[in-house]
Design goal:
14-stranded antiparallel β-sheet, about 425 residues, about 25% strand, alpha+beta, 9 helices, 3-stranded antiparallel β-sheet, globular
Length: about 425
């Protein structure tokens, strides 16, 4: 977790405490995969089951992925993309995983590796279903395979001697794209959203998953029926957590997860919520991300940022950069959380016009300008070493939202941790 010593640093004219040098914020790549590059935007792939291309980091013509360690210790986020999943051309599996607890990083990376492999071997393609192309024949088959895979993987995890998952676990949000079919599965509070066009051809978000937290009545009732307790701590009155019947631990902020076997007899489950969406020509991309992104950026801000990046290959990296800046400006006294993002683009996109400096002039109140050549920020950190070109009009809604917050002295949105978002059913952000 790093040394307990700290030093001061100046940001926007104010001084804050910064952790010691061994808490250095670096790029959170998968060390378990022997990736030695400090820049996890480099392409690292291997061949998986049935000849699939397994992408551990980097990008392809239709995918972008990036993860970055926060200020809380080792990066507990993981991510993965399988192309030609189950051996079928142009079938994609994408997933992000957010570990928690003492061994959360190990559990997240284990599930990240094992889940798509188990699903690929378990799910047998059905030629008849592909011909029919209807919701029932495609979705129901995938749904059964996903639920069975999640449950069996959790059982395997409980018997894995090399992993201490009694009080450690991970979220999981995954998608499978097969032709025009999109199958989404979710466990915990990571999130998937769709960027699509409305009737005015404006990019808008559609939230594909529900944040599965104990604040949801149905989730809380299940936990309490099984002897678990749900309550918030005094310092976080708007963040209900899950506790054991007779001990004030572990205080889990989600109601479903892999691992966390101390709560599995008390209402915590590993059954995912599986949903289906039939894609249309108006749908442009899907974004999967851990809560390090959603805690500080709204769904709308995320789709505006992703849609505005000229090179899709760096979209995930740009989004993580915005999230990090949001953490520093909205919660300067808090430690930046780990962030992991996977973007799947559903079509080739035409180039957009404008530069990031255009955006910075319009939104200077809420984000630092990124030098297009990768020069250092005020804190002496090189953020992006590549050209970033964005469309000012595409961030018009972000400007409108954040323009309303200048009077509140907030640089990136008016939502606080204690405020309820209306992105999806009025869920509480944590």
């Amino acid at each position: 977790m790093g040394a307990c010593c700290s030093t001061q640093f100046k940001y926007k004219g104010r001084r804050y405490e910064k952790e010691g040098s061994d808490e250095k914020e670096d790029e959170g790549h998968h060390r378990d995969h022997n990736i030695n590059s400090d820049d996890n935007s480099a392409n690292v792939t291997r061949i998986g089951h049935a000849g699939a291309i397994v992408r551990l980091q980097g990008s392809s013509s239709l995918t972008s992925m990036y993860t970055r360690k926060g200020k809380k210790g080792i990066n507990q986020d993981a991510m993965i993309v399988w192309e030609n999943f189950t051996g079928e051309k142009n079938v994609f599996f994408c997933g992000v995983f957010d570990g928690h607890g003492p061994s959360g990083h190990k559990v997240a990376r284990h599930v990240c590796d094992a889940l798509p492999l188990k699903l690929s071997t378990m799910h047998q393609p059905r030629p008849s279903a592909k011909k029919e192309g209807d919701k029932d024949s495609s979705h129901k088959h995938w749904e059964a395979s996903l639920i069975r895979t999640f449950q069996e993987l959790d059982e395997d995890l409980s018997m894995e001697d090399s992993l201490d998952s009694y009080c450690s676990g991970t979220t999981a949000v995954t998608i499978v794209k097969q032709d025009q079919h999109l199958i989404i599965s979710n466990l915990g509070d990571s999130r998937a959203i769709l960027g699509t066009r409305d009737n005015k051809n404006q990019i808008i978000p559609v939230q594909l998953t529900v944040d599965l937290k104990p604040s949801l009545l149905s989730e809380s009732e299940r936990i309490q029926k099984n002897g678990g307790r749900v309550f918030a701590m005094e310092e976080e009155p708007n963040v209900p957590r899950v506790w054991m019947p007779d001990q004030d631990c572990p205080g889990l902020a989600m109601s479903r997860a892999f691992g966390d076997f101390c709560l599995k007899d008390h209402g915590l489950i590993s059954t995912p919520q599986v949903s289906y969406r039939r894609l249309t020509p108006k749908d442009e991309f899907v974004v999967l991300a851990t809560d390090g992104v959603w805690d500080v950026l709204s769904n709308n801000e995320v789709v505006q940022i992703v849609a505005s990046v000229k090179r899709p290959s760096i979209a995930a990296k740009v989004l993580v950069y915005y999230a990090v800046q949001a953490w520093r400006t909205k919660y300067p006294g808090s430690k930046v959380d780990d962030c992991a993002v996977v973007c799947l683009f559903l079509k080739k996109r035409p180039p957009v016009s404008g530069t990031l400096s255009d955006i910075s002039q319009q939104t200077a109140s809420h984000v630092n300008e990124v030098d297009p050549k990768g020069k250092k920020t005020e804190e002496g950190e090189t953020v992006i070493n590549c050209d970033i070109v964005v469309d000012p009009k595409a961030l018009e809604e972000v400007n409108r939202v954040n323009g309303n917050t200048i009077k509140q002295r907030s640089r990136l949105g008016s939502l606080s941790r204690d405020k309820i978002t209306t992105d999806f059913g009025g869920q509480t952000q944590s």
